[in-house]
Amino acid sequence: MVEPSLQFKVSPGQAYPLGVSEIENGINFAIFSQHATSVTLCLSLPERRAHDFPDDDEMVEVILDPRVNRTGDIWHIHVEDLPRSNVLYGYHIDGPPAWHQGHRFDRSLLLIDPYAKFLEGRRIFGDVSNKMSKFFGTYDFSGLQFDWGNNYKIPNIPEKDLVIYEMNVRAFTADESSGLDPNIRGSYLGLIDKIPHLLELGINAIELLPVFEYDEMELQRRPNPRDHMLNTWGYSTINFFAPMSRYASSAGGPLKASREFKEMVKALHGSGIEVILDVVYNHTNEADDANPYTTSFRGIDNKVYYMMDPNNQQLLNFSGCGNTLNCNHPVVMELILDSLRHCQQLPEKIFPMSPDDPAIPTLRVLEYHVDGFRFDLASVLCRGTDGSPLSAPPLVRAIAKDDILSRCKIIAEPWDCGGLYLVGKFPNWDRWAEWNGKYRDDIRRYIKGDAGMKGSFASRVSGSADMYKVNKRKPSHSVNFVIAHDGFTLYDLVSYNQKKNDANGEGGNDGSNDNLSWNCGHEGETTDPQIKALRSRQMKNFHLALIVSQGTPMMFMGDEYGHTRYGNNNSYGHDDALNNFQWKQLESENDHFRFFSEVIKFRLAHHIFRQENFVGENEVTWHEKNWDNYESKFLAFTLHDSNGGDIYLAFNAHDYFVKVAIPSPPPKRQWFRVVDTNLMSPDDFVHDGVPGIGDSYNVAPYSSILLKAKNSVECEGTDAVENLLYLHRMKAYTGHVGINSWCSRVSGNFVFVWTSGLFQLKICIWDSLVLYSCLRLYRIGTCCWIAVQEATEVDTLLYSSLISILF
């Protein structure tokens, strides 16, 4: 009840938009609940809070009258003269007590608005002194709109050209070895600081593990075998609009998190890197009836938001997490669509005016400008309200057909924990791509030497036409991966036969037992040089196979230096070195990183690996006479290029050398060896290639080779000289900006970089005349990385020096 001294002037308000909106001289609140019998809005005003977060008795209650504050199933009220920011709010909701009818109302609980755009709660990640913290909705109508900049552009990279890097915002920079200020470790800003690493690796899209608000302390709220763990992966969403506030720098809270998330997206886009979000619309944090953690949906209208068994009104569990969102219920479906739109950039073809145009105030919600979404356990989205599979699920179709979402990439994880396996068969409407789980399994089996896998391996590296071409899809609809966040890391895949999950508090019973791994002859860590060399070779084999495959490749954070979780294949609950990127190891494993980086850049420099359509009979030659030889573990093939730049690849999964006949190169060409994974760095990848390849080649056990046909005097990038001369018309601003800080501008095909160890200085290029002395030069295709210093006088040897290095 509103205290007499705190009487608000209220009016009925309006039913839409849901959530909080600013209208006239006050704030409108609207929330859906079909089965509620009473709704009370609870407010905490900044001037009344004795602490950062209010107790229940410190909140002001405003009771909604169903006769005037309810329109259909929407409860709403307009409160005048509320502050435009820094107000915390939630709801007490009551309704039928009958569990057997699917209801789970409890008026004593303060519930989060599903449409809250910001959540206030615990400020410090993993703060054990505040593990029972509540979460409150909040809003901000007083802050300035984020400045995306006049020259801001989205990368808009075609799916076929993507190289995706799956990563965790916190784990990427949380470790002390990141060298970052403690206030930005594990934050959105920390990720910005490490963009040079992503550029050096060569990827052009990141796929972020969940960044919607979640409670990392949820396992510690009650005694249980896992109460020592922190949820660091984030697959336990509390709210589908609010960015994770504890990824803000300096414990800055939700508004700062929102702003810094946008700064991160802007910086990544400015570097040509797209941002894909992993979204979890298959379940929420609220668990099951045995161990409920009610924060929102369950207490607002359980029967609407969750799938219930029609026989006993118990929660259905197709997610493996205790509950399953009722995705194809119209209300839940609209919630999900609104959440996705909230993360998107406004497509100009739909609304050519500015999103800030006062004529379209409702479009203000299109906030975060992300480029796409990966849908966790997306087969749940293909189930009806009773859990039965649907051939044309309304939500999946609506996402594919939505105008505002028309620009974004949409990627399904096409299975769930209820056995609905839709790999190659996910309803797509010519839009949906898929995590290709069959690619992962077949590549793992072949590379580790399983018999009978050669034909499947050939199908996977050529784009899985057997799965996708029949459905009139494209190779890019197959997101190819060997490693993802769950399961073994790449290093562990070649180091462990059995998972080692005892630290997870579930008696070692969690995580998959079917990892399709091979430890190369010893379980776990070893000092044996032969086993270590074999493991290194196998990691390079996996990476090469992934990167040369038709389709969209995805790798996981840390595999570029050989990160280990010591056999733990389900490390979601560890906020430590088990998950955290180890930056010192990146330095010590520079040879491993170099190979991974060079192979990625080689893919991006050769369209032959990035075909729009499936390769035809005239575009590939399989050097195989007997596909039915079950014991054969050797595969070689040539990809034909219309300009004569053929690529020859051979993968040997035998434990012995295979002497293979090399086909004749195209006319006026010769073969150059670019890759041999059996060789040590830097000979394992030689960008310009090693000539003198004869008519045969001994491919070592468990190794692979890549040959390229080219002229003996060919220099890749015919416009290299032209770009060098372009320097005459340029002026550079140079300045030390601190280790891992950066600024850059690409001109022509050049990126000018100071490279003393790690990136420490970038040089922005502007118009006018300046000369530089060349210290070092690195060339990948037509992209040159040049270390320079400004000349104090005209250096007449500059261009001849550069040209001699290039050629």
UniProtKB/TrEMBL annotation:
<dbReference type="Pfam" id="PF00128">
    <property type="entry name" value="Alpha-amylase"/>
</dbReference>
<dbReference type="InterPro" id="IPR006047">
    <property type="entry name" value="GH13_cat_dom"/>
</dbReference>
<comment type="similarity">
    <text>Belongs to the glycosyl hydrolase 13 family.</text>
</comment>
<keyword id="KW-0809">Transit peptide</keyword>
<dbReference type="GO" id="GO:0019156">
    <property type="term" value="F:isoamylase activity"/>
</dbReference>
<protein>
    <recommendedName>
        <fullName>Glycosyl hydrolase family 13 catalytic domain-containing protein</fullName>
    </recommendedName>
</protein>
<dbReference type="InterPro" id="IPR044505">
    <property type="entry name" value="GlgX_Isoamylase_N_E_set"/>
</dbReference>
<feature type="domain" description="Glycosyl hydrolase family 13 catalytic">
    <location>
        <begin position="166"/>
        <end position="603"/>
    </location>
</feature>
<dbReference type="GO" id="GO:0009507">
    <property type="term" value="C:chloroplast"/>
</dbReference>
<keyword id="KW-0150">Chloroplast</keyword>
<dbReference type="InterPro" id="IPR014756">
    <property type="entry name" value="Ig_E-set"/>
</dbReference>
<dbReference type="InterPro" id="IPR017853">
    <property type="entry name" value="GH"/>
</dbReference>
<dbReference type="InterPro" id="IPR013780">
    <property type="entry name" value="Glyco_hydro_b"/>
</dbReference>
<dbReference type="Pfam" id="PF21156">
    <property type="entry name" value="ISOA1-3_C"/>
</dbReference>
<dbReference type="GO" id="GO:0005975">
    <property type="term" value="P:carbohydrate metabolic process"/>
</dbReference>
<dbReference type="InterPro" id="IPR013783">
    <property type="entry name" value="Ig-like_fold"/>
</dbReference>
<dbReference type="InterPro" id="IPR004193">
    <property type="entry name" value="Glyco_hydro_13_N"/>
</dbReference>
<keyword id="KW-0934">Plastid</keyword>
<dbReference type="InterPro" id="IPR048650">
    <property type="entry name" value="ISOA1-3-like_C"/>
</dbReference>
<dbReference type="Pfam" id="PF02922">
    <property type="entry name" value="CBM_48"/>
</dbReference>
